[in-house]
Write a structure and sequence with these properties.
Chain lengths: 252, 289
């Protein structure tokens, strides 16, 4: 695997508008409870697609599913590979990197160890050092705390670390599950400012959010998920003008 | 006082063995969440293998080859246990507990029936003889055990804190999902842990036999002690295991030497009960290194 190859092909593929992630009729159940009822979603090269919806709509279930953590019905294709029959290591190796809502950091390890483990699947040491610098530039707070244990950091710092660790894995598609949940406005701004530089690295992003304003600010296209079903799709401009979205999610 | 010095030397040597047994036990728990009750049987396997390899009535190879053979045999059996059984029931702790207990029981009885019967057995020491330092006479085997255990403990510490694979072991122990999202194959890491822990148990089995004698049921007592030690030190903590091993080893040796040898195993349990009441998270809590 090589970051150079991937970023190089990314530029070419943007022009041809190739598809990074394609979910077709995805269904997931937990026992008798149906969490996803036939979700279709498409994410193109270099796009930031946001999946919005209330708590319990199935956003995290969708993220877990596309990253190979759950059995599902239907089809999920990442770069033409069927996720259901690909191992998780293989998905990570091919650049599908998941930043979970729970963050799942290595609590008793310091910031730098967490970040370097983010590059576990990468053998190119030069890339790792270079990307570490990119992450520290993106989140200077992390560089001030390289030797601090992850579990002793604030929620916002942990979120930066989780995103940073995901970036260390040389993502081609970054799945960000509710990165803004429970964060103070100042931190929200830090996360917000990180999105553009990440996209400039040629990374496509799937972003789930309850914070509809945040999603509207960053997304190229959006899907509204309710009760496990996609009920609306469109560009931020289209959804801003939608009465239902305005009344239900933007406070009228 | 010579006898006091000897008690201390024995305590150090025994504690060192407990430490490498407990490290294996705590690693398997920390990484896979498995309380491996077949850990004691792996000690027996190491001892029985060295008996077959180096006892003069069997193959009669050099005791060092018996030590290596005991280590390798235990590691192989441990790997088979993980690949053949444990990985399929990893998410069911109660099933695992019962299963590893029964398998351990079965292995020890198989050793009794097919290899050594009910009689004790012995193997030659790697380093027979004595050394006198400052008027105190030490058995060379005690020195050997202490040095080898110290090297193994230090090597384990360096391995988990400095190497990529070692850090991956810690990562899995801290967050399985976190490990998965960075591309660590938890199955591979679990297998490495089982190999390492079983090899350590095998080495301990051989060394216990060299120092004392071996028997088909010899793994049971150290298993109970290892359990006490890792609770004492904090489940999943390597540092805690080493400290716990020395506390238990010294308490045990001093009690059996100065009070009564019938109290063997008893003081460890008393310590365990007191600690569970006073500081249930162990001396070092749930820290993975």
């Amino acid at each position: 695997m090589s970051s150079q190859t991937r970023s190089g092909s990314a530029d070419a593929a943007t022009a041809s508008g190739s598809i990074v992630l394609e979910a077709t009729d995805v269904q997931v159940s937990y026992g008798k409870v149906t969490a996803l009822r036939g979700v279709d979603l498409e994410l193109g090269e270099g796009e930031l697609v946001s999946l919005i919806g209330p708590n319990g709509a199935g956003k995290t279930t969708f993220c877990d599913t596309v990253n190979g953590f759950l059995p599902f019905g239907g089809s999920v294709q990442y770069r033409g590979m069927e996720v259901g029959s690909t191992s998780r290591d293989e998905l990570v190796d091919r650049g599908m990197i998941y930043c979970t809502e729970e963050r799942d950091l290595f609590g008793f390890m310091d910031v730098e160890d967490n970040l370097r483990l983010g590059a576990y699947a990468i053998d190119d040491e030069d890339y790792v050092d270079q990307q570490l610098e990119f992450v520290y530039d993106l989140f200077p707070r992390l560089e001030e705390r390289t030797e601090q244990n992850a579990r002793s950091m604030s929620g916002g710092e942990q979120q930066m670390l989780a995103i940073g660790r995901a970036l260390m894995g040389d993502p081609d598609l970054l799945v960000l599950d509710e990165p803004t949940i429970g964060l103070a406005p100042v931190i929200l701004e830090d996360i917000s400012q990180a999105i553009d530089p990440i996209q400039e690295q040629g990374v496509s992003i799937l972003l789930t959010e309850q914070n509809v304003t945040f999603a509207l600010d960053h997304a190229d296209r959006m899907y509204l998920l309710e009760n496990g079903e996609v009920v609306k799709t469109g560009t931020p401009e289209q959804l801003r003008g939608d009465d239902y979205i305005r009344e239900t999610y933007l406070g009228g | 006082m010579t006898s006091a010095a000897n008690v201390i030397v024995t305590a150090i040597s025994i504690s060192s063995l407990y430490a490498i047994i407990a490290i294996g036990f705590t690693l398997i728990f920390g990484v896979g969440g498995v309380l491996n009750f077949s850990h004691g049987a792996l000690i027996t396997i190491g001892a029985e293998a060295s008996y077959l390899l180096s006892n003069p009535t069997n193959l009669g190879l050099h005791p060092a080859l018996g030590l290596v053979g005991g280590m390798v045999t235990a590691a192989v059996v441990g790997a088979i246990l993980y690949l053949g059984v444990v990985q399929f029931v990893e998410d069911e702790p109660v099933t695992l507990l019962i299963l590893t207990f029964i398998i351990g029981f079965f292995i020890q009885h198989a050793c009794r029936v097919f290899i050594t019967g009910t009689s004790d057995f012995s193997v030659d020491q790697v380093t027979p003889g004595e050394t006198t330092i400052a008027g105190v006479t030490l058995f060379d085997i005690d020195i050997f055990i202490f040095v080898l255990a110290a090297v193994l403990i230090a090597a384990t510490g360096v391995f988990v804190s400095r190497t990529k694979t070692g850090k991956a072991i810690l990562a899995v122990s801290m967050s399985e999902k976190g490990a998965a999202v960075v591309g660590i194959d938890a199955r591979k890491i679990n297998l490495i842990t089982w190999l390492l822990a079983s090899a350590f148990a095998g080495i301990a089995g051989v060394l216990l036999t060299m120092k004392q004698t071996g028997a088909w049921s010899m793994g049971t007592q150290p298993l109970i002690l290892a359990f006490s030690i890792v609770i004492l030190g904090g489940l999943g903590s390597i540092k805690g295991s080493v400290v716990g091993a020395y506390i238990i080893g010294f308490t045990e040796t001093i009690t059996t030497s100065y009070i009564s040898s019938s109290l063997q195993g008893f003081t460890a349990l008393v310590l365990l009960i007191v600690l569970l009441l006073v500081k249930p998270e162990g001396l070092f809590g749930r820290e993975a290194a």
